[in-house]
Amino acid sequence: MSSIILYYSPISPPSRFVAATAKLIKLNLNIKVINLVKQEHKQSEYLKINPQHTVPTLDDNGFILQESRAIATYLVDKYSKDDALYPKDIKKRALVNQRLYFDATIFSVAMRNIYKPILNDGVKTISERCIADMNDSLNILNRFLSESKYICGENLTLADLSLVPAVSTIQEMEFSLTPFENVKKWLEQCSQQIPDYSENVKGAKSFAKILKTLQSK
Ligand SMILES: N[C@@H](CCC(=O)N[C@@H](CS)C(=O)NCC(=O)O)C(=O)O
Question: Could you confirm whether domain 90-216 is CATH 1.20.1050.10?
């Protein structure tokens, strides 16, 4: 068993991003599932390694790291045989970073603003503001993808791996991708390249089902 531990939840898009990255670089991880519904991420043992009480968290032989994008870039830098997913070329890397930040600060924030009120505050209906912000984020992504096959050019990078689980989750939450042709095409391409893609779909469906159940109560 690998001594590199990933604390992970299948319903968490950033967890699935890190797991897919490890698979693509053929790095064996010891996956420890954290049950978010049972609040395992709030237990004192877990808070010691992640005060943010989020998944994923990496424990690489005692080196603890939180935040999916920090984890994925670290894993590629340290363990990948090549730099395809996270180029060493300064300008290419800057572009991947920019799109990772776009995901962290815009796309995933728009998504969180939709699911958090449903999970935490008993909100049943997604506000018009949140729907508009999500559609705006999808539109930006669609524009990025109008210039190239993948988010940062003609090859798959960490920017794609980070955004795919988030976009699939949004799709399972019944956000239509029909107005975003480039996004639809890109998702289909990525699904052919990401190992065990069905795990991503399964996780996205499970999360969407949790939300739907709460909304219908
Ligand atoms: N920016 C963080 C976000 C992590 C995050 O919000 N994870 C969610 C699951 S998708 C979580 O653990 N939520 C529990 C909580 O915030 O208490 C990352 O990319 O790792």
Answer: yes
> Does ligand 1 lie within 6 Å of residue 32's CB atom?
no
How confident is the model over 205-215, as pLDDT tens digits? 999 999 999 99
Distance (angstroms) between ligand 1 centre and the Cα of 147 equals 31
Total residue length of the chain: 217
Is 146 one of the catalytic residues? no
Tell me, using a 6 A CB cutoff, whether residue 41 lines ligand 1.
Answer: yes
Please report the pLDDT score of residue 1 as a whole number.
74
Whether residue 67 has its Cβ less than 6 Å from ligand 1:
yes
Q: In ligand 1, which atom is closest to the CA atom of 67?
A: 20
Counting Cα atoms < 13 Å in the Cβ hemisphere of 114 gives 26
Helical spans, DSSP H, in the chain: 13-24, 44-49, 68-79, 90-102, 108-121, 128-144, 158-172, 181-193, 197-216
The CATH architecture annotation of domain 4-79 reads: 3-Layer(aba) Sandwich (3.40)
Catalytic residue among 2, 3, 9, 12: 12
Q: Which two tokens stand for residue 107?
A: 């796309």
